[in-house]
# Entry
Amino acid sequence: MRRCLDLALQGLGMVAPNPMVGSVLVYDNRIIGEGFHSCFGSSHAEVVAINNVEQTELLEKATLYVSLEPCSHQGKTPPCADLIIKKNIPRVIIGVTDPNPLVSGKGIELLRARGKETITGVLENECIDVNKRFFSWHLEKRPYIILKWARSADGFIDFDRPAIAPVGPNWITSQTARILVHKWRTEEQAILVGTNTVIKDNPRLNVRDWSGKNPLRVVIDRELKLGSQYNVFDNTQETLVFTGRDLASAAVPAGPEASSASPGRQDYPAGSGKIRYARIAFDDNTENRMMDYLYGENIQSVIIEGGAFTLRQFIEKGLWDEARIFTGPALFRSGIKSPEIKGSSVYSETIGNSQLQILSRMSPRGAARPVAPVTGSV
# Structure
């Protein structure tokens, strides 16, 4: 089962909104086939493992290990439980039951009804952890929320910047840590920042120092203050803007290629269709509304990179799952205070010149949710 989990993690950042799954076939204490779900729409782990068995006659004597319950419904691919039955695999070991209502327990029931010895709950907590995004989306009906920020040694995330200060990030961490952050971006489906972060740092919120997919950029712009001079509106990737303004009344013609899905002022780059706006109410429930919207778009995970006000709003509402906090060596002595947060410390490591600490809230099933080491070499 641990090998199944190692395999499953190879699909990180590639399979959402599907779960990460690994599978191993064993005969006579020897692995005869293995596989993992590599990208959304591709063959499931059990199918890959079965297809990788060279001596197919051994399938009728083998044990199949899989980190998540085999599916029993027709989706983009046929049901895995049906294939297991067709290949006469006699024994199936399952890490955890699938939380998806379309599957939940049905695959296990089908296998047992067809006479397959089926064992469940092997390394169950570890299997939940690997698919913490998938479980949060199904059980909590929202994305898995990761908060991330860097702070100085004396607890500030930024200087007090004068109005004439140049726009750009005030780096606290080293290049090594920044590479790791870009790796994290490839692993999540969305990345969210507030208006002030865009104005002060002009971030691109993309992946440059690692290989992988860009996340959906999500920007909070309650009053439509942000114009086309900011990098988040460069039309290079999908961008969603949450606003409290009435877009119809705020909009003027945006150009001959303007999309009706993304109206805006003339200085808004709405023409490509990669930028769209969602009007929501801004009140004590705004953060939940944003997560509800992302849930409705099948976004299973979001990493929130600031600024301080936005981070505090999510912390105060208890609307987070992980916090990834870098502490650098510099002393700012004054400035914008780092958010305060309480959670279970589950991991720490020195990354370049900074100390990384990862905190966790409670899992949907009520247990502290650990996280696997996030680096090997960076």
Notes: The chain has eleven helices and 16 strands. The mean pLDDT is 88.
